[in-house]
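thought: user wants a sequence for this fold. calling inverse folding tool.
action: design(structure=
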C-alpha cells in the first residue's frame, strides 16, 4: 500500500512538472497542535480519560477487596457458599473487563470522544488549507506528517506559515520560541572536574617535596 502511494505521488509530480502546475506541502500535525482549540480538546480528553480510568480502577479495587475477604473467610464457608462467592467475583471481573474494553478499546468511548472533539478543529484547519491553496493558486498540497510522505520537499513549497497565519497563529513567534529552546539545550554543561588517580599521586608527591 505504501509503495502504491509513493508511485501515486511520483506520478502526480511528473504530471505537474509537465503541465507547470503548482505543488505545495504543509505539516498538518504541527499546525493543528498550535491551535488553542486543539489544546482545549486535549484538556477535555484528559478529563474524560482520567474519569474513566478512575472508574475502572475502582472496579478492580472492589474485586481485590472481594478476593481478600473470600480468602479470609474461605475456611468457614460451606461448598455452596464458596461457589457462590467465586461466581460473584468472576462476574465482577468480567464486568470490569468489558467496561475497560468499552472505554479504551479500538472503537471505544475514548476513541469516539476524541473524534467528536477533534472534528471541528480538523475542519477549521482544512478550511484554512483550502483558502490558502485558492489564494496561492496551488494545484496540489501534500501533508508531510501523513503516511503518504514525500521523497523530497523543497522548503520554498512549504506553505505551513500561510496556513498558520490564516488561523491567527504567529509563525515567527513559534519559530523564535523553538530557537530559544534549542539555544538553551545547546549550552555547554559545566561538569565538576575530579582528580584522576594519576593526578592525585602527582599532587601527593609535590606536597611531600614542599
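)
observation: tool returned 210 residues.
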Amino acid at each position: 500500500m505504501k509503495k502504491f502511494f509513493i508511485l501515486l505521488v511520483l506520478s502526480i509530480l511528473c504530471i505537474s512538472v509537465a503541465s507547470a502546475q503548482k505543488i505545495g506541502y504543509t505539516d498538518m500535525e504541527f499546525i493543528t497542535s498550535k491551535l488553542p482549540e486543539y489544546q482545549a480538546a486535549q484538556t477535555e480528553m484528559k478529563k474524560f480519560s482520567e474519569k474513566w480510568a478512575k472508574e475502572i480502577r475502582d472496579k478492580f479495587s472492589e474485586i481485590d477487596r472481594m478476593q481478600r475477604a473470600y480468602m479470609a473467610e474461605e475456611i468457614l464457608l460451606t461448598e455452596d457458599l464458596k461457589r457462590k462467592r467465586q461466581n460473584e467475583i468472576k462476574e465482577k471481573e468480567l464486568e470490569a473487563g468489558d467496561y475497560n474494553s468499552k472505554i479504551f478499546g479500538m472503537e471505544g468511548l475514548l476513541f469516539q470522544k476524541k473524534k467528536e472533539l477533534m472534528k471541528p478543529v480538523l475542519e477549521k484547519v482544512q478550511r484554512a488549507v483550502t483558502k490558502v491553496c485558492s489564494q496561492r493558486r496551488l494545484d496540489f498540497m501534500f501533508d508531510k506528517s501523513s503516511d503518504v510522505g514525500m521523497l523530497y520537499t523543497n522548503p520554498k513549497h512549504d506553505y505551513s506559515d500561510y496556513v498558520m497565519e490564516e488561523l491567527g497563529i504567529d509563525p515567527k513567534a513559534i519559530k523564535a520560541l523553538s530557537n530559544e529552546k534549542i539555544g538553551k539545550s545547546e549550552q555547554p554543561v559545566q561538569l565538576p572536574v575530579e582528580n584522576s588517580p594519576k593526578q592525585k599521586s602527582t599532587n601527593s608527591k609535590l606536597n611531600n617535596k614542599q
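thought: summarizing for user.
answer: Here is the designed sequence. The longest strand covers residues 23-26.
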